[in-house]
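Reopening: Aminotransferase still failing for me.
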Amino acid sequence: MPKLDPSVKNVVNETIAPMGISQIRYFAVKFAKIPGIIKLTLGEPDFNVPEHVKKAAIKSIEENKSHYSEQRGIIGLRKAISGYLNTRYDVNYDPESEVIVTIGGTEAIFVSLAAIINPGDKVIVPTPTFALYIPIIKVLGGIPVQVDTTPDGFQLTGKKLQEVIDREGEDKVKAMILNFPGNPTGFEYSKDQLQEIVDVVKDKPMYVITDEIYAELTYGVKHTSMTQLMPEKTILVNGLSKSHAMTGYRIGYVAGPADFVENAGKMHAYTVTCPSNPAQYAAQEALTNGIDDAVEMRDIYKERRDYIVDQLNDIGYETIMPKGAFYTFSKIPAEFGLSSVEFAEKLAEEGKVGVTPGVAFGEGGEGHFRMSYASSMEDIKEAMKRLREFTATLK
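Support: Ran it again with your exact input. Result attached.
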């Protein structure tokens, strides 16, 4: 086993070196080692990939579709993405010049930011939100500007956005990232709430990167995409991981104006060359013949959501009813005197329930914890029983 030569010990990227791993993953791995724990940590659908989608991947292998695809993805999949967006939101993206197939939503976020950010540029990030945005901005030399949305029920209002832009400098803010339905909160923006943001951004030299990967998982509300309101300045990030339980297939995509996609496509090509063929053919099948595959899963998630939110509030953890995704985000009672990390660790060790501390989702997440209900109802019911017993010991 080679031992690092001392002469290169300090030859390291000074931005990346001090960073830890994603706290979502860190706590998931840490808590998984506790015997008998029920894990409600990761956003990992507990469903299988639809059979017709699996068969499409197998067929591509049997037909020896094993060579490099076009760098931006096979044209059949890009056409399927374009068709899906047109069907769902009545927006039009040219599959040749306005769509990139990426290695999951994470790469879609990375190449989108890489196409925009220069060192010192600022990106507005409403928190609590998905944990990877902030480190990616930092790696690219940008400055994340975190905005706490908890006082406004997890909504970034137009008024707050304008205040932040005025404070940070319109010439320095190059983009903002909006994630909805939200991870970890389940908050879903209405058309009117999105219009507030559009009214602020439309005349400013900045993009909106909109991560809508949970768009197929909304409850009782119809998802409005930012692309419907401001396509000329919106960069859409989406994928198949959540809607079709295809997390391991790693297929995401970026859609946006052709000039932007040209630059993002360069970073994509330099980073990954092209996506995997079997996964692409599976995704093409999912978006062509499985556009409603998520409906059954969504109905089951809703049943779990209703149960877990009712239980959390009854036990004493203030929880807003999520309108999308598959998470609850609950407030830790102040009288417990525990930070979100302390609470999560104590619950895992003493109560045998794994949750994610709110601080993992940015500064606005402190004082909360996230539970994933992408788990069986049996596990959820047992977790609620354990949480109730654990909470009694704190009170």
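The longest helix spans residues 294-315. If you still see a failure, please send the error message rather than a screenshot.
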